[in-house]
Amino acid sequence: MKTQAMTRAEVEAALARAGLDIPEREKPEIAAAAHFVEEMVVRLRRNREVAAEPAHIFPPPGE
Amino acid sequence: MVPDFLTIAEAGELIAKRELSPVELVQSRLARIEQLDGKLNSFIRVLSSQALDAARSAETELAAGRWRGPLHGIPIGLKDIYETKGVPTTGHSKVMIDHVPREDAASVRRLTDAGAIVIGKLATHEFAFGGPSFDLPWPPARNPWDTSRFTGGSSSGTGAAVAAGLVLAGTGSDTGGSIRGPAAFCGLAGLKPSYGRISRAGILPLAFSLDHAGPMAWTAEDCAIMLQAMAGHDPVDPASADRPVPDYRASLAGQVKGLRIGLIRHFYETDNPANEAIRQGIANAAKVFEDLGCSVRELRLSPLADWAACGLTIMLAEAYAIHEATLRERFTDYGEAFRDRMALAALISGSDYVQALRLRRELVAEFTTAMADLDLVITAAAPSEAPTFDAVSKFAIFERPSLTMPFNVTGSPAMSVCCGYTQAGLPLAFQLVGKPFDEAAVLNAAHAYERATSWRSIRPHSPLP
Lengths: 63, 465
Hints:
- Chain A has helices spanning 8-17, 27-32, 34-44.
- Chain A is an all-alpha fold.
- Chain B is of the alpha/beta class.
- Chain B has one domain (8-457): Amidase signature (AS) enzymes (Alpha-Beta Complex).
- Chain B has helices at residues 8-16, 22-40, 48-63, 106-113, 156-163, 180-186, 220-230, 248-251, 265-271, 276-291, 304-330, 336-345, 350-370, 396-399, 406-409, 439-452; strands at residues 43-46, 75-79, 117-122, 169-174, 189-192, 212-217, 260-263, 295-298, 376-380, 414-421, 427-434.
């Protein structure tokens, strides 16, 4: 198991806050998988310019 | 007697010459489905009478001299996220088991307008995401090369049905590799076109900005024929590209000599290490291209894990938004693989999503620069041949970075091409990637490779192992 910052209680609190009614049997496995998300989101953050744009734009109607 | 295996090109030519009847062809596929699909589970729904009616109509049209093109009278299958008028479209899920669309998906309409005959709706991972699962209303599809093995996903039924010769081609969708994965594991040609090339209208979404529709067939030529029908601007789909659609089949006659190919070796040697059979298959494929007059040079990009993190974060966030209300109300009506993976999306913040979109812009720019003096890219499509079902864990998509996701992030056309078989007879594949909207170059190179090798002459054994 990889190191995980979120505790099981924190994961369960986040899932409850999201309104998900997760069976007891599945909670430990989901909680133990939270490190996958933690590892992913670390990779998203870079030392970016403040104006670095995301990869979507909103085309105004008629454009 | 209709052969067990025919390509669209072969069958289309026979039909055009009136040497093969669409009715006979459809009857032969229905008999084959009856014979084999009990072991494969590739179909959720077989549309026998509807398909036979369509075949009889095709025959009448052909008798009157009205030939619509190479898809006229060709039986195909649709992944069960493609909406079909009056026919349930379930996403392979209890959640939408009673969903009966009022219209065909735009791409389905285009295929049937071109004369294709829809013979049934095909298995998928639940909503193109959760699988393989044994707790859904239908079992998961099995691999025709070895039925104890996974087909890959999520276009699992299409992979199985095409590889087993139950249909001549089928539709898939690809949000992180769901066309290219099953094509690789089932020994097919599977093309994810450029983002926007095929309308997404009427296809159950997984993640709006990563979803691609596309064909799966036995050869690059058959993919070209399918793409020709499916491609084109659709104002109903806000992401649909208003670009001219070239003659893809004609492009197969193009030169490959002089093409500049980049080989992204680090993706499958260090970032997500492939087994020796895959590495050797890709090395041999690169040599084939060199022998055909192409130049092949190594290309380095950002680590595969960056691409996967970017794509998966976007996929989870967008998919969660789609399913959020139903997950709250009916969590256990979803299969366990889908719902537990989606639960992880609840841990992703709005800021995470936007950071992923910022990274996406950077990665797209990086790939565009890297492709400036290249025509195509080669890398692995999967790190191994098809695994057994018990080797695929619930969180497998997170455990190793996906080799296919980078080209969902960039929206590039990308294709799985069979490059041999293991000693046990399981297909191997590589991935061929082109510049945006240059599907023609990808198809042309894949076609040249298929003609230079013998892999397309090998089919799964019948009866199935």
